Structure formats: C-alpha cells, structure tokens
Amino acid sequence: MRKVDIVFLYEHAARELDVACAISAILQQKYGLSVEIIQWPVGFLNALYNLQPRLVVLPFCYTEKSYPKLLAAWRKSIFFNMTWEQLFYSGNRTAKTPRGEFAVHHVIHHAWSQSYASFLQQQGIPENHIYLNGQPAYKLYDEPYRRYFASRTDLAKRYGLNSECRWLFFPENYNWAFYTQATIDQFIRNGQSPDDIQAMQEYCKKSLRETVLWCVEIVRSDKVEVILRPRPSTSLTEFQEVVSQCIPSIPAGLHILNDESVRDWVLASDVVVSSYSTSLLEAAIAGKPVYILEPYPTPSSLKMQWHEYLPHLETRQQFMKSCLENTQEKAGAILEKWTREQMMASEDAIGRLAEILSHLLGREASVPTVPSWRASIPDVELRKRVIMWTLSQRLRAILGWHKMTKVPAEYVNDYLESDVIKTRIRRWNDVLFGVPPNGVGSA
Predict the structure, then answer these.
(1) Where are the alpha helices (DSSP H) in 362-437?
(2) pTM of the predicted model as reported, rounded to 2 decimal places
(3) Rounded Cα–Cα distance for residues 232 and 228 (Å)
(4) Can you tell me whether residue 440 is helix, strand or coil?
(5) 20 to 30 A Cα–Cα from 413, which one of 42, 140, 234, 369?
(6) Element of type H or E holding 188
(7) Sign (positive or negative) of CA dihedral 155, 159, 164, 167
(8) What is the distance, to the nearest Å, from the Cα of residue 90 to the centroid of all Cα atoms in its chain?
(9) Which of 10-14, 40-44, 155-159, 416-420 has the lowest mean pLDDT?
(10) Are 77 and 368 in contact (CB under 8 A)?
(11) pLDDT cut 90: percent of the chain above it
(12) Element (DSSP H or E) covering residue 98
C-alpha cells in the first residue's frame, strides 16, 4: 500500500475538478506534498487498498453515513470537508446540515462566508475546526486562474458556434424535475416537507418546459446562439429526453452540451441566464450580464437572499429583449459586489486552501481526534455490513478482482481516467508556475 499526503475526493467534475487540480499543482510545487485526485464514489473503490492518505479532502459531509466504506479503510486520516453546497434554500437546508458525532467532532469544515461559519458553530462544530476562506471556484474568474480556460474562438471551432452572434449561456438547474422517487423518499426521511417537495417539483417541471420553448424562439432570430447545459448530475441523455417532450426537434442555434466547464462557457458568453442556479453568482463574478428566468412564481422553499440582487425575467418579451439587445447595462453588478464581499473572504481562496491543508499535515493547526469505530459508524447493523464488505474487498484485492471494468452510467460525466487528470494538472502547473508537475497524480 502506497502512502500519500493527500487524497482529494471530488463528486462532480464540472463543479469541483478545476479547483482540485489547481490546488494539487500548488500543493506539489509550493509545499512538496503528494496528492491523488479521485472521483467519489467510483474511483475510491479502485484506490481503497492501494493508498493510505494522511489527509482526505471530502466533497461533502453531512453524517457518518455519507462515507461508511471510506471510514472503514481510512479512519485514521485527517478529514477536511470542502462542503461544495453552502447556499441553501429552505427546501434543502435540513438535508444538508452536518449532524452526528463524526461530522461534528472529527471533521474540519471549509466555510465560504461568515454566515455559514456561524451556522456550523450552531451545530456544535468547534470554532478551531472551521476555516473561513471563501468560495475557491469564484477565484477561478480572476487572474491568473482564468487563463486556464478555453477561449471563445476555440469553443466556436469545437462546437460549431457562430462567434459573430451573441452567446446566451443557460446553466440549467431544475433539479427537482429530475430526482428519482428513491431520492425524494430519502429527502423526506431527512426531514424535508412533502408539500414543499411537491411544489418544487411542479415548479421545476413547468419552468423547464417554458425555458426550452423560449430558447427555441430566441434562436429563430438568428442573432443568438444558446448553450443550454444540464446540471452536472443530470446525464445528457436524460436531459435530451425531457427536451424532446417539449419540442419535436432541436433547431440550429440551440446547443445542448455538457462538455467543457461552466467556467469556460461563462467566460466566453455574452449573457448568462438561469433559474435559481448558483452559476449566476459565478457569472456575476466574471462581470457578465446576469438574469434569473422566472416564468412562474418561485416557491418560497426555493428562494434565496441573493436572488433579490438580480433582475428577474418573468415574460417571454422580457427574456427576448434582455438577451437580444447589446446594452451597456451591467445586470448583475449588485450581485457581484455582494458575492465578493460575502463569499470571498480571502484574497485568494485557492492559494490559502493549499496553505491550510499544508498546515494541517504539519500539525501547525488543530486537528480533530481519530474517531472510534462507534463514532465512525454508530449504526450496529450498518457497521456489520461495512465489516463484511471490507473483508470481501480485501479478498477481491488478493484475487485481483478489485479493478473496475465499467463506469456506472450515472457517473460517466464525472469519472475521469488518471491520464486525463494528470493532463489537467500539467496545464495548471503551466498557468500558475510555468513548469511541469512532479509527483502529483490521480488514482
């Protein structure tokens, strides 16, 4: 088993991998630390008995049930929670609140805002295990990080877009229209209101249909190219099936793509429109005209404070006018100011995050105690299942059966092979340091 300083787990490549690769480049070049970047949960199974990390970066951590198999193998590591979702609406706050002995007492938590740091303290998490640092992905829109992303010219060539037209980027986030019944049932078990869930589902289904129809109409003007991007956890096939129920065929000028990152498209586009997606915060940071599309009144369970800082497009006419006209009005300027003040506590959240991880490994900062088996997996029946699973995986490793032969369909967009991740890290090294990486990889 190979020892490594840090295993960096990511869940959604589109949301998290740019930050993970940039931080990995800094950790290796500036601090001399070894890093492995692994997709959770697919890549983790392959790495389980090959690596022994000193520190594990988690994409989220709400309860010990989030990672029972990981805790069985890497329980003695330091755990650092990136917490990639921190902007809540009432419809998801309960499910995404850290709770239980492991999440509260044995994990270090990363906070984007003072508001979220205070929220964590209210859950009983010690103040010295909370790092107020800011949203690292927002820093990707500033120098030098923004140099990493594809240019408008490159994107036009790759996807057959007319660079002379206005580009409208619509990062879709009608998530409640796509959740399975099993997921809905789990939300209800976690304390979500069934009435709120029903209202959110109905709103998202109706709004998605209207969005597709409005996008079809605007591309008929021949003045706009629309890039409609499904949310990371919705497959392209699944999204296209829903679109096909709204329109008989996809017209030229409407591009349904999940290739490239949100950052590539935000930086290259002329205007960004979405529902309640936090991608609008990123577009505001990038200085783009930004709008919320609201064809139907938004349920109170989906509303967030920052929505009030953006213009809302409630009619088809408002949508057409705002997206077609070359206006100097900087829609989103108020949101940009709010986001930089509230969600970017550090001047460089990416560089500081690398520094924090280095200090934790060097024991220059407070580190939680190692959780007991009982704290890691308090549910006795779950503990028994995990023990049996662990024994079976050890046997599979001995027999050479542990290698993954096929990526599950739901993770195809997120799981990247080792060579692809290493190529990304090489690009980040070139952008940030002008040198190739040394000793940074992925499992």
Answers:
(1) 373-376, 380-399, 418-432
(2) 0.85
(3) 12
(4) strand
(5) 140
(6) helix 181-189
(7) negative
(8) 19
(9) 40-44
(10) no
(11) 57
(12) none
